[in-house]
Amino acid sequence: MSLLLICNGLFIIYSILLSRGVYLDWEVHGFSAWLKSLGILKLLDIPKVLLACALILLSIFMYLGARIAWCVSLILLATVVFLDVAVYKEIGTQAYCSFALGIGLLISWRAFPHHSLTSAGFVAFICIISLLSFSMLGSLYIGEEFKPHITSLMDAFYFSIVCMTTLGFGDIVPITSNSRIFTLTVVILGITVFTTSIVYVMGFLARGTRDIVKKRIAKMHNHFIIIGSSVLASQLEKGLREQGKPVIAICSDKNNAFYDASANIVEGDPTNIKTLQAANISRANWVATLSESDAENTFILLTIQECPETSAKLITIINKDENRDKISRLRPDMLFSLASLGKEIMMKVLCDESIKSSDVTDLLLNKYLKS
Predict the structure, then answer these.
(1) Which residues contact 212 (CB under 8 A, 6 or more apart)?
(2) CA distances, 73 to each of 3, 58, 60, 92, 277 (Å)
(3) Which of 104, 140, 268, 272 has the greatest number of CB atoms lying within 10 Å of its CB?
(4) What pLDDT, on a 0 to 100 scale, did the predictor assign at position 339?
(5) CATH assignment of 116-219?
(6) CB pairs under 8 A, 24+ apart, for 144-152?
């Protein structure tokens, strides 16, 4: 695929030069006068030449199996086909070759599995440099169609950066239809290139962070597992972490906002055995089910008991006292009831009875030994 990509890029450049009837004498002209040399191309030929050069450079990372190179190459090939069909209105051999190569890339997507920050950064660099080159060459090519005229490399570079970053100071203004269309093209491509590059790099960093968390969780033993998306669960996890205890929180991906960014979080359904295994439950010391639903806590306890080689102690919260007997049948090591605690303490206060620490302990924790 990499070799085909190189051949396609060279064929694009060759087709453009051949269509212009250009025969270059490099020894005589030498392209020393770059602006004069640029005159061999029409304005709409410039992006195709740059696209071809980008495809040739991307072939290096395609050979290494980089997923971002595959993705960007696919987009560039689609752009080449679009230019031939919609802009040039010429469907020739080169357009068919680009289309066929794009189909081939789609079919062979499994051959490009690698994600690398280096590859992502370099591909983003290629895209930005290509767009910058297109913007500079194009603005110089039609420099007289701007007010004031763009006549130097510095002016072209300044105008290109202003357009690509969508700053738009307004000191250089397009005054013709061609220059306005060209400026809009640079702005749209600039937004696309910068957004795609930033999103991919940030996505790679996020995946890297998740991989680090997974490796850290895999090494944990005698740790605490907090299950649930509630204020109590988040505060307990934070308290254990502040005391230097190894702790993992399990919650659904839409409810992880309850926990701090520095927490070790396993996202998923806690009633799924694979989610519990991802939290290394077989080596855990304590598991606390602190969901705000007694039914969910019950299903979580049942799932934990189905996990093989699990010796962790179980503590669960009771949200409604009428569910105490039902949950106790699952024989958790501890039942935790805030409602009972609050009721009994308030009754003692209202009846002017003394409150002993042993009474609070008995009310707070209802212990059941596993058979």
Answers:
(1) none
(2) 13, 7, 11, 20, 39
(3) 140
(4) 74
(5) 1.10.287.70
(6) 145/174, 145/175, 145/176, 145/178, 145/179, 146/172, 146/173, 146/174, 146/175, 146/179, 147/172, 147/173, 147/175, 148/172
Kindly indicate whether the domain formed by 221-366 is annotated with CATH number 3.40.50.740. Answer: no
- pLDDT value, residue 358: 67
Which segments in the chain show pLDDT lower than 70?
17-47, 86-88, 115-120, 200-201, 203-210, 253-256, 357-371
* Paired tokens of 259: 């926990």
CA gap 292, 303 in Å, rounded? 17
Q: What is the DSSP letter of 29?
A: T
ω into 174 cis (within 30 of 0)? no
- Rounded Cα distance between 92 and 90, Å, is 6
Sign (positive or negative) of CA dihedral 153, 155, 159, 162: positive
- Both tokens of residue 196? 């795609």
Q: What is the pLDDT of residue 9?
A: 82
For residue 311, give Cα distances in angstroms to 237, 269, 287, 368. Answer: 21, 21, 10, 16
Say if residue 183 is exposed, middle or buried (CB neighbours under 10 Å; 0-12, 13-18, 19+). buried
Q: What is the DSSP string of 276-340?
A: HHHTTGGGEEEEEE--S-HHHHHHHHHHHHHSTT---EEEEE-SSGGGHHHHHTT--SEEE-HHH
Q: How many CA atoms lie within 13 A of 269 on its CB side?
A: 7
Q: What is the 3-state secondary structure (H, E, C) of 50-104?
A: HHHHHHHHHHHHHHCCEHHHHHHHHHHHHHHHHHHHHHCCCCCHHHHHHHHHHHH
Question: For residue 170, what are the contacts with CB-CB under 8 A and spacing of at least 6?
Answer: none
pLDDT at 213: 72
Q: What are the sequence ranges of the domains in the chain?
A: 1-114, 116-219, 221-366
Q: Quote the strand ranges of 168-264, DSSP E.
A: 173-174, 223-227, 247-251
| pTM, full prediction | 0.50
* 312 vs 276: CA distance, rounded Å: 12
Backbone angles phi, psi at 114, to 5 degrees: -85, 135
Query: Nearest 5 degrees, angle CA 99-CA 102-CA 105?
Result: 155
Are 116-219 and 221-366 equal in CATH topology?
Answer: no
- Predicted pLDDT at 359: 64
